TrEMBL record:
UniProtKB keywords: Hydrolase
Record PROSITE patterns: ASN_GLN_ASE_1 (PS00144), ASN_GLN_ASE_2 (PS00917), ASN_GLN_ASE_3 (PS51732)
Residues annotated for substrate binding in this entry: S57, T88, D89
InterPro entries: AsnA_fam (IPR006033), Asp/glu_Ase-like_sf (IPR036152), Asparaginase/glutaminase-like (IPR006034), Asparaginase/glutaminase_AS1 (IPR020827), Asparaginase/glutaminase_AS2 (IPR027475), Asparaginase_C (IPR040919), L-asparaginase_C (IPR027473), L-asparaginase_I (IPR041725)
UniProt protein name: asparaginase
Homology family: Belongs to the asparaginase 1 family.
Residues annotated as catalytic: T15, T88
Stored SUPFAM superfamilies: Glutaminase/Asparaginase
Asparaginase/glutaminase C-terminal domain mapped to chain residues: 207-312
GO BP terms: amino acid metabolic process
Lineage, highest ranks first: Bacteria, Bacillati, Bacillota, Clostridia, Lachnospirales
Gene of this entry: ansA
Molecular function GO labels: asparaginase activity
Domain L-asparaginase N-terminal residues, every copy: 6-185
Catalysed reactions listed for this entry: L-asparagine + H2O = L-aspartate + NH4(+)
Length: 339
């Protein structure tokens, strides 16, 4: 029998590690205590644990993602896989960010958490953690994934869709990679071997503004957004377009600030953008250079632009080539699609 896989648990806080305080739930359970609740994982893997952060994930920031990446890089050779215990609220953002910051990892990096603290009698924490260790210790696992409520979701495809229920995450416009039931991993998609070596990126540019359109939006704040941010992501309606009420000012600013990255995304949860369909999208094409999200989740668009701006000089790269290149299954129906 082959030796047990060595898995490192990186604890970052979240409900999974929370206890009641006077002011509500607060992370305070140590990673060692977390492991005491799931002694059965010792049967199939050798676990070590470190407390990397201790946050409600509402407080998770790009600086913390860098810290997580740095720790995984530091311990990469010493372990066969990693489990990150994380709050659920921003887990989809972290999973997307790590997908860009750690690419081609043959060692699985699994992110999990819980809707109920591990010390409660009724909790999803234990099953989520056990499934995560099982997945991280499996020979066929690789890359960055979320394991939650029996589903394995590609790091770029997850979205928190329920604030209270156990099935809090969906895989958006892409199948779950696997399901885990009664200790068995059922894979829906084969893991294809990576062509390149593992690569770590520790830079991000977080100077990004997400502008959500609402009916009746006025152009008042646009000047200051363009002045102050490197990238403006427009969370538009439907497949995409700029409404008349802000169009003149928006196009004027696109011309005044040609170096700003403009990305058109959508507030619709499924099926993505297509700026070729409507006149409101067509006009945008006439006046601005922009990227669009296609079928990428908003979390992935945000993380990908932070990664792209942080690691490449946009004047010396083909921005479209990088943005539309599929990373960890993030974009399938993008510009570079081959049918
Ligand atoms: N279920 C959770 O983990 C929610 C918590 N507020 C967090 O994101 O840290």
């Amino acid at each position: 029998m082959s030796a047990k896989k060595k898995i490192l648990l990186l604890a970052t806080g979240g409900t999974i590690a929370s206890k009641k305080s006077e002011n509500g739930l607060k992370p305070q359970i140590t990673p060692e205590e977390l492991l005491e609740y799931i002694p059965q994982v010792k049967e199939f893997c050798e676990v070590s644990a470190i407390q990397l952060l201790n946050l409600d994930s509402s407080n998770m920031e790009p600086e913390h993602w860098k810290k997580i990446v740095h720790a995984i890089r530091e311990y990469y050779d010493a372990y066969d896989g990693f489990v990150i215990a994380h709050g659920t609220d921003t887990m989809a953002y972290t999973a997307a960010a790590l997908s860009y910051m750690i690419q081609n990892s043959t060692k699985p990096i699994v992110i999990t958490g819980a809707q109920k603290p591990i010390d409660l009698e009724i909790t999803d924490a234990k099953s989520n953690l056990i499934d995560s260790f099982l997945y991280a210790a499996d020979e066929k696992s690789q890359g960055v994934q979320i394991v939650f409520d029996g589903k394995v979701i590609a790091g770029t495809r997850a979205k928190k869709v329920r604030s209270k229920s156990y099935n809090a995450f969906s895989s958006i416009d892409f199948p779950s990679l696997a399901v885990i039931q009664d200790g068995n991993i059922m894979r829906y998609l084969p893991m294809l071997p990576y062509e390149d070596e593992v690569r770590f990126y520790e830079e991000l540019d977080e100077n990004i503004f997400l502008m959500k359109l609402i009916p009746g939006i006025r152009p008042r704040v646009l000047q200051s957004i363009f002045e102050n941010y490197d990238c403006i992501i427009v969370e538009s309606f439907g497949v995409g377009g700029i409404p008349k009420s802000i169009a003149d000012e928006f196009y004027r600013l696109c011309r005044q600030y040609p170096d700003k990255l403009v990305v058109m995304a959508t507030q619709v949860a499924h099926e993505g953008s297509d700026m070729t369909v409507y006149e409101v999208g067509h006009d945008m094409k006439k006046y601005c250079r922009f990227l669009e999200s296609y079928d990428m989740t908003l979390e992935s668009v945000i993380a990908k632009t932070m990664w792209m701006l942080g690691n490449f000089d946009l004047h010396s790269i083909d921005v479209e080539d990088i943005f539309y290149r599929s990373i960890n299954y993030d974009v399938i129906f993008g510009k570079n699609r081959k049918c």
